[in-house]
Amino acid sequence: MTHMHIPDGILPVWLWFSGLFLMGLALSLSLVSLRSMDAKKKIPLLGAVSAVMLVAMSLEVLPIAYHINLSVVAGILLGPALGFLSAFITNLILALMGHGGITVVGLNTLLLGSETVLGHFLFSLMGQRLPVFWRGAVVTALTLLSTTLLLIGIVSVSHIDVEAVLHGHEQGLHAQVSSDPAIKTFAIVMLSLGSIGWLIEAAITGAVVKFVSQVKPELLKHRLHDLPGPPVP
After folding, report:
1. Is the pLDDT of residue 230 over 50?
2. Is residue 38 a part of any domain in this protein?
3. 61: which DSSP letter?
4. Where are the alpha helices (DSSP H) in the chain?
5. What is the pTM of this model?
């Protein structure tokens, strides 16, 4: 739901360029952290999780037009650094398939990548306070709420026609400046329909995480020093 299907030429240059720049910084940080990881074990998992995300995001949940991201699953299983790389790979392939323009890859990667990072840390910080299913479900709902608000903020500062964001219509190429009422309507649609999708994705994430905890529990034993910096005891 936080993936923007916006063609090239709609968003202002300063916005999509800033997205690409920040994405580049985040990717650099993620790649640096790979030096301290066991690549032989992590890279195959990165490919598998990215493939599953790609399939999930290519499908649409009708009638609410919601796309399952599985980004929180990626963050929990891969950790924040590889999770962000997975978000980039998935968004780049989707853009090449026509799901949004190339210039939007930066912003989409930041949105999806922030879900992997936030989902990972929330899941880790929650500890054993809840059963694993509910940990995954609650973390997913909180994460998707946060990134949806971020998406609404991006659309608001872009001053584009919200129809271009909701549908990616060709008329978006001639987008008019959106008004405050239009942004409010967009926010209401995203939060109301999105909340239904969050519940669906929360249930899926909880089920996946619970299954992994039963068959491959070591995948859930990430440490918070997955990003560069001093290890957490």
Report:
1. no
2. yes
3. B
4. 13-33, 39-58, 71-78, 80-96, 105-126, 132-158, 162-167, 180-215
5. 0.83
